[in-house]
Amino acid sequence: MFLLESKENIGKYLKKLIKERGFEKDADFSRAYLKEKYRNIDYTEDDLNEQLKTTKSTFSQIFSGNKGITIEHLAIISKLLCVSCEEILSAGKQYASTRNHVTNYEIAQSHDRKVWDEYMKREDKLFLNCDEYRKTVIDYALEFKNYSFMKYLLEENFIWFVDNSKENYELYYYGADTSIKSNWDRFDMPDQFMHRKLYEEDKLRTQTAVLAIENGDCDVLDNLHAREIPELHDITIWGTDNLDFVKNRNDDLIEAIAASENEEILAYFSDEFPVQDRWKRENSLMFPFLNDVIKIMLDNNNNKFAEFIIRKMIAHNKSTYEKTYSLIKEACQAEYNAIQKNKEKIIKEAYQNGISLADLKVSGYEGHHEKVDRSPSELEPHLRSACDILWRQDTRITFSS
Hints:
- The protein is mainly α and 401 residues long.
- It has helices at 7-20, 26-37, 45-64, 71-81, 85-89, 104-109, 113-120, 137-143, 147-155, 193-200, 203-214, 218-223, 251-259, 263-270, 290-299, 303-352, 357-362, 365-368, 380-394, and strands at residues 159-160, 177-178, 273-276, 282-285.
- The chain has a two-stranded antiparallel sheet. A two-stranded antiparallel sheet has the order 3-4.
- The longest helix is centred in the C-terminal third of the chain and has 50 residues, at 303-352.
C-alpha cells in the first residue's frame, strides 16, 4: 500500500523522469506519447501534428500541478518511461517489484544512457534474446526510431553491421555481428538469436541508414555502406548473374532519400563510389535504386533535387558509355594487329618456301580473313552501334531524348 502524492509532486517527479530519459523538450515527449497512443491505429503524421499542441498543453498543466494525471495518461507514461504506475503516483517513493523486470520493448524506447549501460551489462545477456513476438531490442529500436540508442550500440561497438577487418565480403554478407557473446556454443540456443538475426537480415543495416538520413548523419551512412548492396562486390569485368534488386530493395530507404533536403546526404547517395570485387579490382558504381528515388522526387514535384541527381546519373552513364566503347575499340585494335601480324608471318614463310601469293588466294586464306581484315577506323560505325546495343541491354537507368 502506498500514499498518493499531490498533483504538484507527481508533476515535478514526471518532469524529472522525462529529463532523465533523454527527452530534452516537452514537445519530444508529447510526440512520443501520441505515437505510442496511436501505434496500432492508422494514424498519419498530419493527424499527430494536429493533436500535438493540445497534448503539450495538457502535459504542461500536469507538470505544473494544475491538472491531475488520468488513467489513460498513466498507462502510456508508465510504458514510455519504463517505470511502474506506483512509482509515478507516489512521486518516486514506491517502486513495484516489476520495475526490475526489464524488457527489450521498454529498453528500445528509453533515452537514458544509464538504463542502456545497465541493460548491456546484465549477466543474463537479455540483449541477445528475442521476446515472445520474436523481436529483439534492435527491432523495437528501429520501429520506435530511437536513433540515439542505435548509435550508442554502434559507437560502443556492441554491434556492427559492416566488419571492415574482413578482406572480402563472403556470401553477400557484410560481417554483421555483436560483441556480446552467448553463454552457449550451440547456434540454435535462444541467446544466439541476435547473432543469427544480424547475420541473416541485412535490412537491419539499411533500416539503420534510414534513421541516419532522418538525423542528417553522413558519417554513420558511410560506415554502414548505406548506398551498397552486398552483391555489388560480385560484379567483375565478366559481369554477374547474382544481383537481386528485389531482395535488396528497401522502400523505406528509398523514400527517406527522396524526402531528404540535406544536400550532403543527396550528394552521398548520387555520387559515384568504388566497390572492390573479389579480385581486388575497383568498379565505379552508383546507388542501384537512384531511378526509384528520382521517380518519387518527380511525383512530389521536387524538381530541384531530382535534376541535381539526374545530372550526376547522366554524367556517370556518359562516362561509362565512353569507357565501354573505348574498351571494345581497344579489343578490336588488338585483334586487328594480331591478324595483321599473323598474315605477315604466313606470307613471309610462304615466300621462303616458294609459295606464291596466288597460291595463298587459291587456298582460301584471303577469303577467310576478308571480314576481319579491316582497320578499327573502318569499323568505327559498327563498333559504336554494337556499343549502343550492349549499353541498352546492360544499363538499369535510361533517359529518352
